[in-house]
Every structure is written in structure tokens, then in C-alpha cells.
Amino acid sequence: MAAETKNVTLQIDGRDVTVPAGTLIIRAAEHTDVYIPRFCDHPYLAPLGACRQCLVEVEGQRKPLTACTTPVAEGMVVKTQWTSEMARDSQEGVLELLLINHPLDCPMCDKGGECPLQDQALAYGPGGSRFIDPKRRFVKPVAISPLVYLDRERCVLCARCTRFASEISGDPFIELFERGALEQVAIFSDEPYRSVFSGNVIQICPVGALTSARFRFKARPFDMASQKSVCNLCASGCNTILQSRRDQIVRVLAEDNADVNEVWLCDKGRFGHAYIQRPERISEPLVRKEGEFVPVSWAEAIGIVIDAIHSARRAGRRTAALSGGRLADEDAYALSRFARTVLGTNDVDFRSRAGSAEEDEVLGRIVRAPGITYTDLEQAKVIIVLGSDLQQESPIVFLRIRKAATRHGAVVYEVGGRRTALGSAGGHSILCPPGTEPGVLLGVAAELGKRGVGDWSQAMRGALDGPSASALREQSHSTSEQIGALAGALAAAGADAVVLCGDRLAQAPGALAAAWNLAEATGARFAWIPRRSGARGALWAGLHPSLLPAGRRVEEAADRRELEQLWGVPVSPTPGLDTHAILEAVGELGVLFLAGVDPAADFGDATLGARALDGAPFLVAQDLFFTSSSRKAHVVLPAAASAEREGTLTDWEVRPQPFGAAVSPAGVSRPDWEILSLIANEAGVAFPRTLDELRREMVALQRPTEETSPVSLPPLPMRRLDEHHPFTLLTYPLLLDAGTMLLGATELLDTADQPFVELGRADAERLGISVGDRVRVASACGRIEGPARVTTGMADRCVFVPAAQFGVRGTALLDAGEPVTLVRVEKL
Prior knowledge:
By secondary structure, the protein is an alpha/beta fold. The chain contains 27 helices and 33 strands. The chain folds into five domains: 7-101, Ubiquitin-like (UB roll) (Roll), CATH 3.10.20.740; 135-277, Alpha-Beta Plaits; 290-350 and 535-700, Rossmann fold; 360-529, Dimethylsulfoxide Reductase, domain 2; 727-827, Barwin-like endoglucanases (Beta Barrel), CATH 2.40.40. The strands form eight sheets. It has a seven-stranded mixed beta sheet, with helices on one face. Strands 28-32-29-31-30-33 form a six-stranded mixed beta barrel. The longest helix is centred in the first third of the chain and has 17 residues, at 85-101. The radius of gyration is 29 Å and the shape is globular.
């Protein structure tokens, strides 16, 4: 149990204030609404006292003290600039020194109008300057990365940027060079500032020293309208501020939310907004006529879609809908309702890959289980990450785990085929080829069972001792020391442990069930972190072949009755097809709806995704752009982007967060839920016509969380290498890739990794491959070529190919019909 925090009482400007012991004076003053000026101080960075702007008088001290580094004490008497001449003179002196070399070009500075130096010089600075010599000048700007420009003469040496790089993101490529009057922010000549969080140094810079290459000289704060929003580019749920000028988004800032993203944002969320206003946007309904797309009215397009649905129903043909996990919560619920009431089908899925009975069972429990929060994550003693490269797939979760490790001493383990930035930042990496993760987890469970730790079901005990678990454990190449260390950490942490699973873990049969059961048996907290922003909302909405909204089950008559009473139509009791089965059966479908998904590119088997859509009798696509899939559609309906409409996004914590419209929709585009509502009502099915009506239905369907239970383990397939395909493929999307939602983000994409194929050092030496050599990776489905990377952080006989880099797509190698894709690697 945590020790009770001791409080102390002090006096600030004649007013008593009681705060916890250890609070800094600058924070205590905020409790009394007294603002002490500062530059280097930042609530999420460690105290430094670099700028000296926060000097205050403390009774009993001979000289002023920095409020940002001095903790309070019982009975302390503090006088700020409002009541102390010493403090006021000290602050004026510091400002005068800062302005000696600072250029007075506020009208053209990007920080003009929102600059603390401007504000504090006016409020607390001297009335004039005694400095008459020429100011120091530098060549400007210095491009420290394609995204960040540095104007050195404006820098006040607050060290916020360098502290962020070392303390928060762990990317120490930006530093303070030289000393004294020559000290300046710089980067190493042979190492540019490479970080997926680099834009944060722009926002926290208190002057215009660090500026955005994209926003530079574009607008002033008083020229822009601001709208609070939620980033939709991953499941982290970051709060943002969208700033627009002349109905065009010109800047995205991180909104301060201590419970979610604090005040940080990844570069994709900050700079990846160009797609919203690209000229390629679909802005009006389109119908294919004689092989060409022809613009039509909404009424005509909807009429054609309704005729196709009625024809399919009369002919007794199946209909289906795919979403891909990018929709807002309201859109996901609307599509789930539309599928069941208008299409009359359970053939719906938000996953861009094949599902399994094991995953269905775990997802059914996840949607009814209580979630965990960022705060829980930060306070955990042990964190296990499975099936996710968090820096690339959920960057703000990565920052919180890094904070838990570096500031609170959490022990972090990652299990997978490749060491990620989390493992490189001090975490423990247990490297195992894809498909063998269950062997590691069952080995940990068996070790815990030997120690008498955990409550194991009889079925689980049988699996732990079975030959398949032992064989997979051997194939994983994990050592008994690694297994024992992870088991020991879990045993010691108990309920203070967190098991984090990415949705990629479900691709290894038995891994997701083993992770869930491990958490259940030991009392650890379980969290599911999907890659896409709408996946959590889609799961709740029932965009799943065997699940209905709020975790209700298709097979349960009582669950169906609840929905039938609300919706007014019968719900099919037969579980539907998953994405893989839908694509295989496309030729038998009457109508296939695609809402924000591109199976031809996104699906885990690009060959099947592209080939299947060629045979679709009638394809309807709701999307922002023409994609590989929507180009095959018979009707294309223009969807509004998230910045153009209202909605809600539920992040990985199960925290629903509303967002609003910042700019006008492109052309006559509409939100996805509204498009579905128009079609349904025109088809004669009662459907909510307003967002409020839709939300009231969603609220009415909410259910309390339920007690969870273990799940059954499926048969564990062996990893069978052969001489023709002696490697296992690992592939997943990186943060910056060839995705549609990065269209137009030129400067951002300049920071992306160039195409590569990554091998372990021992495998590379065996094949005679050096860094930069061209290599070919071939599977039964396809092949790719690219330059080699060689690392010590790769599992034996495993090769990593990014899923969607420019020119190299790992998805081209995947065989969705197999749990593990075997490949051949050769030097060209």
C-alpha cells in the first residue's frame, strides 16, 4: 500500500497554500493563481533551472532562488515579482540579457502572437534596452530534419528540446554544443535528427527557434480557427487541436490531456493531415457506366445501390460488409446495424486478415472486460508486450511505457521476432520466430505452475505439459533463463503486471489464448492494442461475424431479442464469414460493401484481396480516395474525413472521445453513418436519421463489464522449415509507409525509412550478405527485392520485411491460408 503523502503549508505573496511535500515553488504558486514567468520549466520535463527567469525571493535566503527547481518547505515564505522588488529586478535583468542577441523580428517570426518571450517581455521586462552593439547573427534556417528548422539566433538555451529528446522520446540526436556565449542547439554532422516524435520540440520551444518546415510563414495565431479533435491515425487516441485558415488545415497541435497523450504527439499525427485536402479526394457519388466512372446525384447513386440489394435478396444471394478498422464509433455501429437490418447478414468484419475461433473467443471476452488506462500502464511494475512494435504501431503508448521504465522502474519484456525500440531502450527482448510465441508463453506458464504461482484451469494444465507446447518452446529458441526471468517478474508483480497484446498476435495459433490465460491465472491486467484507431469501436459495434454490439453473441437468442426489439427486424442466428472467407466467396455474393477499407492492398494476402474483388458481382465502396479496391467498385460514395464531421473515437483504453468538424467537407461528401442512413431509409428500413438518434441507440445498448474466464487453447501447429523455404517471414506496417492517409505529406515521408529487408547477423553471415546488398525474399505467393539490413535483434531463421514501404511490400509474400509464411532469402 502506498505511503500517505505528507502535506506542507507555505505562504506565497501573503497567501497560505497547502501542497504535497516535494512540490516545486512554481507549481505551488499555480495553486494560488500566481503566475511566475518561465522558459525552461515544463510540467512533463525534469527541473533544470537553465533560463533563470523564474527567480523569486524566499525569506531567509541571501539571493533569489529559481522557483522551478526549489521544493517547498513547511513555513516557507515566498515573494514573487508581484510583492518583491528583488524578484522583479532579477526577472527584468534576465529578460534584458535574453534580448541582447534575440532578434526583434516578431512580425515575421512563426511564434509571433503566441510567444512567451513576447508576453513576458511586455509584462515583466524592462521598458527599454541599454544594448547598442550589433546583435549576433547566424546563417538561417538550419534544417535539423526535413520537418524541423532551427533559427539559432532566437534560441534562449532553455534546453526543452534536448531534454525532450533524452528524457521522453529517447532519441538523443539533438544536443547543446559549445559553451558560454557560443552555446547553441545543433545536431551531429553525420546524424540528422531522426525521431518519430520530432515535432514535439517545435511545440514546446518557448520562442521561434524551432519551427515547422510545413507551417513556416503560413499563418498567424489570430488568422486561424481552432477545433479540438482526436487523432485517427492509430489507437492511441491522442487529443489534438486542428487549426485552419480559409477552410484549410494548416497546423495540428497536441492538446494537453494528462490522462491520455499528456502534451505529446507523434509526427504522423502532427504532420500527416495533408490527405484531407488533396485534390484526389472523391467529392461526389460515382457510378461505373461502360467501364468509366460517371458523376451522379446522391439520389441516383442510392437508388442503384438499393436496386442491387433488393436483387440480391430476391435471388437468395449473400451480402457482406467490410470496414477495416478506420471508422469512427458511430460509423462502425451504423455499418453493423445496416448489415443486420438492411443486408440481413452477419457477414461483417473489421479485420484485414483471416480470423480464427480462438481469436473470436478472446475478442468476445475483451469487449466485455474492463479496460486499463494510461495511468495503470505507467504505474505497472511489469509490462509484457506481445505482437506489437509500439513505437511504430501506437507511439504514445510507447512513450508511456518508456516513462514507466525510466521514471518508475517498471520492468519491460517484449516477445517477438524482432527487437523493437522498446527493447533497445532498456527492455528485455525474448526473440522468437513468428508462430512460436505460444511456446514462450506456455513455457512461462509451466514455470509459474512449478513455483505454485497462479490459478491454472485443468485444460490449461494439460496444454502446459503437452508435447506441442514443449516442441514450440524448443522452436522458439528462448532460453530457460529468459523463461525463468519472465516468470519470476510476473510472480513478483502479481496484479501490478500488465500483458499488452497487439492484434498481430492473433496470427500465431494459440498465442492470444495463451496470453489471455496467463493474465487470468496470475491476476495481471490484460490490454488489447489494435493498430487502427477505429478497431476498438468496431469491436464494440459488432463488426464481427459472431459478435453483435456491446459483446452480444449472434448465437445467443436473448442477445438477439434485445437488438430485434430495438431495431424492429429479425437478426440472423447464424455466425457470418470473416474477411478471408468473404473474399474467397466474393463471386457468390450479391452485394459487397467496403467502408474505409482497401482489401486489395490491406489484406494479409494481397493476391487474394486483389483477385477476389475482380469477381465481385456488385461492389459498393465508401471512401475518401480511389484505392486499388474502390477502382473496382460499381458505385463509389464519397465519405467525409474525420476533420470534416463530428464523431467519437474509442481508444485502446476503451475511452470514448468526441471530435468536431474543423473544415468543410470535400464536395458533397457525407459521414459514413449518414450515407448508410440514407440508403436504409430509402430502402424502407427504419434507421436513425440524426447523430443524436444514433448515439442514443448506442447508449441504450451499453452493458456493464462482466467477469472474465480462461479460453480454450487451439491445436498448436509446428513451424516446419524446409530447404526451399528455410526462413519465417515477419511483416507489419511501419508508422510511415505508402498508405493512402499519408498522401501529400512530403516532408513527413522524407523522414520515413527507405525500403529494406532485415536479417539477423548470424543468418546474414551464413548467406554471405552484407549491409546494403540486394536480396530477394520469395514465398509461395510472390517475391520482393530490397537492400539488406543486418542486426543482432532478429530471431534465428527469421526475416523482416515492412508490410507497405515504397517499392517493397511484405504483404505480397503472405499466404493468408497459413498461420506462418515460409520464405527463401538469397543474395542477388
